[in-house]
DNA sequence: TGCACGGCCACAACCTACGT
DNA sequence: ACGTAGGTTGTGGCCGTGCA
């Protein structure tokens, strides 16, 4: 026959009141079961201090079972850190969160650290339980956002740019065929998905700084639609004629250590 | 007889390691 | 990413024992 018992039907507050009354001799054990809905057995364990953590649980999501490795306050703090990193476009990956949980316990010697000492991080099961306890966090695919875009693309800077552009165009009486726009764009030569990071649920997009581009293309065209052949910069020490295979006519193919444009290459492009 | 107490056992939730 | 086995810690019902 199936067990119909219900666990954890009592509240910490009622346990506290029952303990107080019982200590003062105001209530009998059997009455506690009726008045406070606390099973005798459970009450006595708490009364005698047989329950290690007492009746104030670290995690209030459940009654049974052992405590979460991180006390609820530490979990809340960790959640705050995750959201803070995410909003600063440095979203933490799953493993980074697991490492962080380990480090929190390591830096608090009074807390028991049940996590794997060799791996120096919390287990995967801990991670999934943590995410379950914090339903407004979710693992999301990040979008790469460059530092320049983060720092420069704001209302003030964009406004200043167009004010300056307008002044230069007016002062020099520039016509469309004399206005050229040059820009460089970085590419990765190895297609690899960006790692997933943890962020706030239901947020439209979550960004992450772009790292490690290793090929650059410098493009230029005029306001009247006239195109200049591109400069393609590969990340390598020596140039090779094969790198030019299939490139548009008139293209310049160069190499640099970082794969980015530098002052020498820019002069060369001019 | 009512009450306090304790042993036993199944259950529950939180973890781990390991395998697929 | 998920399933499984196993450890840890706490819960709760049942039942037997001892005592006033």
From TrEMBL:
Task: Please report the name of this protein according to its UniProt entry.
Answer: HTH psq-type domain-containing protein
Cellular compartments annotated: Nucleus
- At the top level, the lineage of the source is Eukaryota
One GO cellular component assignment for this chain's record is:
nucleus
List residues of the HTH psq-type domain: 12-51
Q: Quick one: where is this thing mainly located?
A: nucleus
Which species is this record about?
Clastoptera arizonana (Arizona spittle bug)
One Gene Ontology MF term: DNA binding
One Pfam short name: HTH_psq
SUPFAM superfamilies per record: Homeodomain-like
